[in-house]
Specification:
By secondary structure, this protein is of the alpha+beta class. The chain has helices at 39-51, 57-60, 73-86, 109-120, 138-141, 161-165, and strands at residues 2-14, 18-20, 23-25, 29-32, 89-99, 127-132, 145-156. The chain has a 5-stranded mixed beta sheet. A two-stranded antiparallel sheet has the order 2-3.
Length: 168
Amino acid sequence: MKVGIGYDCHRLQKGRRLVIGGVSIPHHKGSLGHSDGDVLIHAICDAILGAVSAEDIGTHFPDTDARYFGLDSERILTKCLEILKEKGFRLVNVDSVVILEEPKIGPYRKEIIRNLSRITGLREDDISVKAKTKEGFCFVGDKEGIEAYAVVLVEREPQNWMDLTGGV
């Protein structure tokens, strides 16, 4: 088993969509990013890549590459899951925190978890999405940004029946 941690942050800007965990959330500001700016999915991606020593999301999807401009982050997560599988691992669970002052994401939490479950293949009860504020502190507290942290647990995929029995 291995553990990975991921982090992402973006400025919030009027006229952009706010996407968290692949769910569009109504708000007058959205994440400013090269892709769709989904900080939660980006943090999960970095956690997955880190767990299997596959560098980071910026290495695989550089913001200097026009092909990725406006890219749906679900596609980024799908690619990171493919890398995980290529390395011989599978995702066990995701624990995450989204930090923003507004809007409150509590009403969207179940939809976000359902969507992440659909993308990752994990059961909903193996995905945690928590929401926090900065209580007026820093750029997030000033309602100018959004942050997310994610921790994932991954385990090696069994290669044969000996792996499943512990070599008995």
